[in-house]
Amino acid sequence: MSFIKSTILGFPRMGSDRQLKKLVEGYWAGKVTEAELAEGSKKLRAEHWALQASYGLTEVPVGDFSYYDHVLDAAFAVGIIPERYQQVDNSGTLAYFAMSRGLQNKSINVDVPSLEMKKWFDTNYHYMVPEIADDQTFALHSTKVVDELKEAKALGYAARPVILGPVSLLTLSKTAKGSSSKPISHLTKLIPVYVELLGQLAAAGAEWVQIDEPILALDLDTAVFEPAFSQVYAEFSKVSGLKYLLTSYFDRLGSNLSWAAALPVHGIHLDLVRGASDVDAALEKIPADKVISAGLINGRNIWKANLEKQLAILQKIIDARKAAAPVWVNSSCSLLHSPHSLKPEVGHLDDEMLGWLSFAEEKIEEVAILAAAAVNRSAVDAKLKTNAEKVASRQTSERITRPAVQQRLASLDKTFYERKVPFTERQKLQRAALKLPLFPTTTIGSFPQTAEVRKARAQFRKGALSEREYKEFLDSETRKCIEWQDEIGLDVLVHGEFERTDMVEFFGEHLEGFIFTKKGWVQSYGSRCVKPPVIFGDVSRPHAMTVDVARFSQDCSKNKPVKGMLTGPVTILQWSFVRDDQPRSQTAGQIALAIRDEVVDLEAAGIKVIQVDEPAIREGLPLRKADYEAYLKWSVDVFRLATTGVNNETQIHTHFCYSDFNEIFTAIKSLDADVITIENSKSDLKLLGALEVHGYAAEIGPGLYDIHSPRVPSVEEMAARFAALQKYIPAENLWANPDCGLKTRGWAEVKESLTNLVSVAVAARKSHAA
Ligand code: MET
Ligand SMILES: [Zn+2]
């Protein structure tokens, strides 16, 4: 039965040991030449194809590799290079990296910032946002994907080029500054360039081309998108010799399926993990002669697949197709969002835990087993049996369940989700208790993680520094930090978060139900990778996590309040790999209970202001509008569960790092926080626009300066921003603070910037009184 193909939509690029990170960063630092970067990357690609072939995949994707980002690659390939980068030799790597991370080079007189970066759908991967001008032209500018196809073929692999389709490329782009046309209105001009590229792929021996159109998983306006897609594939069909696999992922095709199924393509990929509900409609609507690519292995999580369950879905599809057309076994989406391999975890994680997990390498094997089972089950019987045992072991393990936690969550009544009195009454009580001036100043929490801080932590982890020595070091950093804030006149102080590498990792390490991998890196943007914690079981808090540090810091402050700093349940969930055996909302509820206990303990220790950060609440929003409400309901609930255990006098802060919160504004209001601090400086208009439309009745501190750059903001520019904010926010509700935490900054610039910020607030108080 040769009609089963096994493949994946894409593989992580970084390498088993983040080799690509080292190559690219070495190149930026001038330590790796362009030729070495190219050679090293070629070697990585070859290794990744070899790995896929070693498990018996029948075809490997090519073009999924990228120096920085695949959206940027697609834009670069068709010549979407904004004018400001054209002063750089735009033929190659220099312009490409100028677009990805900006370029300051005095000798060639160039100083350009990077393109804007945005989250890739609901993942923690960020793509570079292409800019389309009114007079945009397109031209084939890079043949990277053709070259990689040739490379794979020369090594003897059956290879399938992957390209980001033109409709998604334009839909993910933005209108360039000074232009007004919608990017999608440029489609007709763009298509011929794609056709030229496809012609080159055909000439290089491609048979199938994978066209990623992930926007098909979004709510689309049929009147615009059906004709757009029809136009594209009418033109693509003219390229002779190619077959197209149209893919989308991260959600169901839903109502887009009926017209997408009719497009003149040769195969359609279905994400059968997140879009499992598409199956029946797909079998009915996708013409019988088209390939169905069954995305059965989850590319978004790290749990071992339940192969029997997935095999049943596969079998259903195969039976329905009656051998009229091939069926492919595939990953649900690219494995880009999975760590590379479980191998480095052997010896780090225990055997039982290892048996529950599956990273990219193991997912490849799962695809191969499913495909083999569909052809001849007995050939992989033993493997299926082992899989069933591991899956069952996770379902039944006592390590997973803590009945006390589950019972507690199930027993809560509505008082656990409500403060005792409404905000306006709390505000009076808090004013009396805290005695803050008008326009209180504060920061978001972290202060510079200097080389010294990182070194001390590394030494402590290695055992070179004793626990006592490390604590003394942290105490002294914290004391200096508090004293300095006090001295320059900040009003609500923070301890600086010197003990935390990462705001989620810190809590994960203290809570039960989490594990940490050794090399489970996932690309976040460019060369930056994150190592998300794994939430495997019921979450509980064995001991207080931040109370000692908060108490110590409060003692260091003469008479100003020090904020207790916590990470919120939605953010902890969003930045972790989450168990899939219960709804996310339930796991979030368990985390919320742990945070709630911490909040209550902080209050009992004399902490009067407590901040629960939720920077990820926006990115957790589902892709489909129909799913918004349910998500927003439970994410608001868990925040309230975490924060409402306190008395009226205790001031609850929260923090977000985005300003486009129009869509979730109502939810933000219902968090019922006393104060929110929010990123604002990079896009003043967005926040002000939202405030104008919706109004905001509680206290709020829109960021006065961008913390992503070492630039020191002047008093004048922050004063202007602050004056603008006063038009939208009543003076008695307005705070002055930066956009976000300061951990990536140096002390010199932090000192100057915050001193300027304080003087903005002081001047505003004076002119308000006058
Ligand atoms: C990404 S939001 C960061 C909040 C955290 N409290 C900090 O200041 O670093
Ligand atoms: Zn932030």
Automatic annotation (TrEMBL):
- Cofactor annotation comment: Binds 2 Zn(2+) ions per subunit.
Q: What is its EC number?
A: 2.1.1.14
Q: What does this protein do?
A: Catalyzes the transfer of a methyl group from 5-methyltetrahydrofolate to homocysteine resulting in methionine formation.
Q: Where does 5-methyltetrahydropteroyltri-L-glutamate bind?
A: 21, 124, 528-529, 575
Annotated pathway: Amino-acid biosynthesis; L-methionine biosynthesis via de novo pathway; L-methionine from L-homocysteine (MetE route): step 1/1
Record keywords, A-Z? Amino-acid biosynthesis, Metal-binding, Methionine biosynthesis, Methyltransferase, Transferase, Zinc
Q: Where are the transmembrane segments?
A: none
Q: Which is an annotated Pfam family here?
A: Meth_synt_2
Residue ranges of domain Cobalamin-independent methionine synthase MetE C-terminal/archaeal in the record: 439-761
Q: Cobalamin-independent methionine synthase MetE N-terminal domain: which residues?
A: 6-319
Instruction: List ligand-binding residues for L-methionine.
Output: 444-446, 497, 613
Task: Identify the catalytic residues.
Answer: 708
- Which protein, by its recorded name, is this? 5-methyltetrahydropteroyltriglutamate--homocysteine S-methyltransferase
Q: Which residues bind L-homocysteine?
A: 444-446, 613
Please verify whether the record's keywords include Transferase. Answer: yes
The cross-references to InterPro entries, in alphabetical order and at most eight, read: Cbl-indep_Met_Synth_N, Cobalamin-indep_Met_synthase, Met_Synth_C/arc, UROD/MetE-like_sf
Q: Which residues bind Zn(2+)?
A: 655, 657, 679, 740
One GO BP annotation of this record: methylation
Superkingdom assignment? Eukaryota
A GO molecular function for this record?
5-methyltetrahydropteroyltriglutamate-homocysteine S-methyltransferase activity
- What cofactor(s) does the depicted protein rely on? Zn(2+)
Gene it is expressed from? MET6
